[in-house]
Amino acid sequence: MTAQAALATPSTLDAAALRADFPTLRRVINGRPLVYLDSAATSQKPQVVIDRMNQFYAEEYSTVRRSIHLLSAKATQAYEDARRTAAQLLNAPETRQIIFTKGTTEAINLVAHSYGRKFVGEGDEIIISATEHHANIVPWQMLCEEKGAHLRVIPVDDRGELILEAYEKLLTNRTKLVAVGHVSNALGTIHPVEDIIRLARAQGVPVLVDGAQAAPHMPVDVQALDCDFYAFSGHKACGPTGIGILYGKAEWLERMTPFLGGGDMIETVTFEKTTYAPIPHKFEAGTPAIAEAIGLGTALEYLRNIGLAAIAAYERELLDQATARLEAIPGVKIVGAARRKAAIISFTVDGIHPHDIGTLLDQEGVAIRAGHHCAQPVMARYGVPATARASFAFYNLPSEIEALGAAVEKAIAVFAV
Amino acid sequence: MSNKSLYGEQIIYLSKHPKNFRPIENARYICEGANPLCGDRVTVYVNVGDDETLEDVAFQGSGCAICMASASMMTTSVKGKKRAEAEQLFDEFHRLVKGELDPAREENRLGKLTMFENVSHYPVRVKCASLPWHALHNALENKGVASTE
After folding, report:
1. pLDDT score for B3
2. DSSP per position, A92-146
């Protein structure tokens, strides 16, 4: 029986069995078994994804949507199957609403460019939140600078929760878009995107959700959310790098200008005029990341077979255990105490810089991230230059939480001279 | 801890109790060094005499233990030295932390700075150790800022 077949309901997710699917998790680091707690940066890859991409390159490789030979037809089918898998994962109404991008960053830039160029003008406003990743700040700043528009920021409270009363006041007839993260990569907060979207909808304002930290960890239903755009990255979802997903409502995608011009995004080209291909191809100029898209399709099927609800429930248990373990260590402070939280823990240790924690934990085989997590405004908000961040996935075990706690205690001991 | 450990007791002690951690009023040279990727910041103050001697060197800032200890050791190492000697020490230190200078095999003037030898086993931490030196170098060149990125 494969690891996947061993799965059933949320309470019985068998992380120990699932780990066998991940060759990297068998690595020994600095003489100790790898404890990989950096899945918010990027997830490890199951063998099925590696095999699927190898198989595509070794046996099936060809281009998509260009050539009429058999291999190209098969490649096109596999590529479009991956698009369908992504549509199913997000419960998108139609497969053509799924655009392949390089990742979340490119997906947001696509919307900033193609929606922003057309629908945002001087004096208009775009609302983001105080907890955004730089990828959901900088594209909007660039757009605002170009258009003479203004960025408005939903403030965050001490727990790491967005202040919705302030958000309501920011929504005006000048607001042209709300762009918010589903889950904060720096604090772990699960933002109330349902409320954020509902309030924007009441004002007729479209909403983009940055789902980079959410889509791999919990069920996402874009129809239930009623968001206008939803973006996530393949590499955080057990898939390859260089591929990501942008979901968009067809009514927007059809009216938006193309992002990049080139091959595959056109209908007809003359030197006088070009007409564009229908969506999604209008937004996929050039030969795409074919193997990566197919690998992502396999990764999303893999996650779906485990069950996103099961993953969310299991990771919630890990979060609670890890929070309790770290809070019990004198000198450890957790940054971000939202009531709804994903399995991401930012923390500081009195008297030890996060980079030193990162190196000392690495010596114990424990891989975490230390730094500002591409969220410098968040660090400034909580008055820390950086944090250490442990982030979890369904393949982590309670024993790894103990390894984390013991490594932090050892780091404190090293610095106690 | 292995013998390739980054954190000797002296480094940790100096990071907590750095020497010359203060501003210099009306310093002749000041440079703010920053590593924008990790957030380390070190401002280096230098006074140089007419005979090119570094009469006073001090720093302020925040950062990891490697960066703070390195800044502290730098100030005590170059104080009283000629400008050219300080630059030569920077070159030797930079090669030390990059693993290009083996103090056991190559003649050098590093002295206690060899406590940073094991930084060479941690490539991502080289910039932590070298940031204060870049700031000193740029201060002496009369540049106001230094960046290790």
Report:
1. 55
2. -S-GGGEEEESSHHHHHHHHHHHTHHHH--TT-EEEEETT--GGGTHHHHHHHHH
